[in-house]
Amino acid sequence: MRDANAGVTLFELLLTITIAGILVALATPSLTTFIQNNRQTSEGNSLVMALDYARSEAIKEDANVEVCASVDGMNCSNNANPGGWATGWIVETTAAVPTVLQSMPALDANNTLSAAFNGNNVAEVTFQPNGFVLGAANASLFVPTYFTLCDIRGAAFARDVEVSAIGSVQSAQTAGQNVNGGPLACP
Fold it and tell me: Rounded CA gap, 156 and 119, in Å?
């Protein structure tokens, strides 16, 4: 009798382990997608907060404040290449001796972040004391600066952040679309 009970217990244990393995295998892709979506949303929100902070500081300090791509978190890298903002960015004053007000480290290794104004890639966005964006004011154009955050899943999952000429910051609510509902493209 003891051997029969031991066999049933071993069988039950193996069956439980098998079922648990199947459930883990089914849940893993969903967990991966959840983590990727969460990471991308978090990185996009960090950019929106940095841009809002820069605009607020420009108005408060009555001085130009810029957000720029940065490799070391202390200096602007002037990297306007597509995806160049993935190295991180800083918020700094544009005085003779710039002061770093905030720093964001590099994005996840699989993510890229690009910024473009009037069809050209840009390495910084500068807010004036009135809250307007300097590039837009100098160009006398009322076009936004577009940020596109992409990961390995491509344009269908990309995120869009836009800074209008008057300094208003918006992010698209739907992945793969810009603020106006148009499709995004990844570099």
Answer: 21
- Judged by DSSP in three states, 126 sits in strand
Could you tell me where the beta strands, DSSP code E, fall in 62-158?
65-69, 89-93, 100-104, 112-117, 120-121, 124-127, 145-150
Amino acid making up residue 153: R
Q: What is the CB neighbour count within 10 angstroms for residue 79?
A: 18
Instruction: Please name the residue that has the structure tokens 């800074």.
Output: 163
**Distance between alpha carbon 182 and the CA centroid of its chain, in Å?**
19
Q: What is the pLDDT of residue 141?
A: 60
Contact between 177 and 184 under an 8 Å Cβ cutoff? The reply is: yes
Chain CA centroid to CA 124, Å: 15
Q: What is the DSSP letter of 97?
A: S
CA 47 to chain centre: 6
Q: Which helix (H) or strand (E) holds 156?
A: none
Domains and CATH numbers, the chain: 2-171 (3.55.40.10)
Do 161 and 85 meet the contact criterion of CB atoms below 8 Å apart?
A: no
pLDDT bin (cut points 50, 70, 90) of residue 160 is very high
Specify the higher pLDDT residue, 84 or 183.
Answer: 183
Beta bridge partners of 177: 183
